[in-house]
Amino acid sequence: MTKHMVAWRNLVQRSAARKLHYHPRPALMLAYVRAPEHAIRSTQEAPSRIAAFGARAFLAGALGLVAVSAITGSDTTVAGTRALTAVVWAFARLGVMLFFARGDQRAAIATGWAAGLLPYLVGVTLGLRAVAFFISAIYTDAALTGVGIDRERSHSLVVRAFGAQGIVVGALWAARAIIAAVVMLGASF
Q1: pLDDT tens sequence across 76-124
Q2: Domain extents for the chain?
Q3: How far is CA 3 from CA 6, 54, 117, 160, in A?
Q4: Could you give the CA distance from residue 86 to residue 72 in angstroms, rounded to a whole number?
Q5: Those residues with Cβ within 8 angstroms of residue 63's Cβ, 6 or more apart along the chain or in another chain
């Protein structure tokens, strides 16, 4: 098992470890969907419950992407690679936020990050994953504020983490388009 998979498993286990049995409490989850910043502050156990649910929702969305690809006849290897890439990007965003965090804020940032993964539950197609990315940025910002990170710091962390991913992905797509254009133009001469 890779180091990242062990870290992911430990995060999910730690986030739910405060209770022996994980019960998602649908009312709390619905409140989080409606008003994330307030719901995550509602009780002492709310942050860990919402973070555990967010991490599980992210995994369910990744598995859903592979399942929808298999059902629609798409290449499941490509879908599996996309799901794995989403996991890597999620950890990269966490890494960026932790890099810019103060030492005493690391646990709160990890909790807010995991809670912000909830929108990926519906990311079972590439278009829905793109929408989930933007909504996840909003939820992550609200969750970070809800777990005690001041609003300006929360905005800064989210912009750096999600912005870095946006810039890298945009640059890769631009490079891909340029290479395709050069190949097409070269073939026409």
Answers
A1: 788 888 889 989 999 999 999 999 988 889 999 999 999 999 999 998 8
A2: 3-188
A3: 5, 21, 20, 24
A4: 20
A5: 83
